[in-house]
Amino acid sequence: MGACLLGAVGGASVASPWLAPQPPALVRVQDRLLVPLAVQDGTRHWLGTDALGRDVLSRLLVGARISLFVGLTAVAIGGTVGTAIGLVSGYYGGAVDRVMMRFGDMQLAFPFILLALAVMAVLGPGLGNIIGVLGLTSWVTYARVVRSEVLSVREREYVQSARAAGASVARILFVHALPNVIGTAIVVATFSVASTILAEAGLSFLGLGVGTATPTWGSMLADAREYMTDAWWLTTFPGLGILVTVLGVNLLGDWLRDYLDPRLR
Question: Which of 29, 67, 71, 136 is most buried when burial is the number of CB atoms within 10 A of its CB?
């Protein structure tokens, strides 16, 4: 079910250049606030138009592409950095472990939304900036989960045998330790996609996301605040897009957790 929902959203986002009835940035003030299914000048607006006459369906499809791209890219960055730090921290232990984990504790002690707001306020809105912020502030979760797994893996017989045979640290980490912790990291990453999409929508809602020139679900909600009572469709459809995407990711994460953990089968 989760894969179907996520596949439908992903497929619609990829096909958005062909599915969108109008360019998402096309302004037609004379067509402002048309209700869903309205026809104007021979064009049917399936989900209505916004306060500037822009087609809501077109903007919703492009927003799906941006949200999924930000979510997947930021999770890939955070997951890679966090997994690498967790492997090193768990394997070496001692002072290396304490320094890395205390640095992670300091980041966790600082509220994420305040950190993201501060960084985005300094760097300014932009696709690369928001991906960097969301990716580099999410490594702690992966690092702590992977570290706890490696602490157990490093004491097992096959790791001890590899160490006694003279295997390098890199070989032990990537050949023996990583395959045993990658399943847990994948599950964490799957759930993180949902939280990253929500974080991007929140920052875009506050005006510190991708930028006003690019339609995102969060910016669509922000633009619709003043018309909630008069144009219900402006908030309903972007909200449903976020709900369906996050629900699909969470259901997929539940399935992966059960599939990758034999104890839960």
Answer: 67
